[in-house]
User: Fold this.
Amino acid sequence: MPSLRDPIAFTDALADVLRLPDEALAMSYIYTNKYLRFHRSSATPDPLDPYTLSLSTISIASKATESPRRLSSILLPAHALLHPPAPSTGKPTKTLTIPSPLYDTLRATLVQADLILLRVLGFQLHIPSPLEYLQRYLERAMEDIENVGEGFDEWDREAKGEYGVLSGIMEGRVGRGCRAKAVDACKNYELANLFPARAVALGIVYVVLEERGLKIELGVREWVKDVGSAKVDSEDFDEVIEILRKT
Assistant:
């Protein structure tokens, strides 16, 4: 088993083991950064260590994004990730079983952490995510090309399956690149806390198109207004793409 570098690597790996969708993982990072922002401005001590915080954000985000996972489903692989096999024996250094006093303790700790996180979030679990806006922005950015093609998106599921047609624009290389960058953007403290999700999403589409060699022919200001439906501040957009290019 690979060793973990940090809590971010732990969260990514756990989300994969739990087969969580991008929306849940992105939301877990948004919660993490909201929690960190709260404690940066609070005089009270931070009661959660980084790994307990990661577990709690995964737990709450899975429920908020309608992909709930049982606490046992979270704790068992999490414990295995944090206690990998010893190199000398290849056997786990610690094993978590149900029932056991250790499991009861860990479960109680996670329940308490969830309550702490919920209070910090003000019990407001739906926080806008860049993933919510990606598809519409990418479709608008690509509509001149999409409108002269075969119209694959109009095909029914059976025809798409027969001819190997992707289900939609977000399943293509650019769309997948946008989704991956959106999840990574939610890990960034500034992008998660200081900018509207719309601005982050539009910046992601712009940067991914740029990275793929797809040049924007319109002026940037005109493109932002057109694709963003005049709902994204141009200064926010400029700052977002500056941060994205550095990450």
Observations:
- The two ends are 27 Å apart (CA to CA).
- The longest helix spans residues 101-120.
- The chain has twelve helices and no strands.
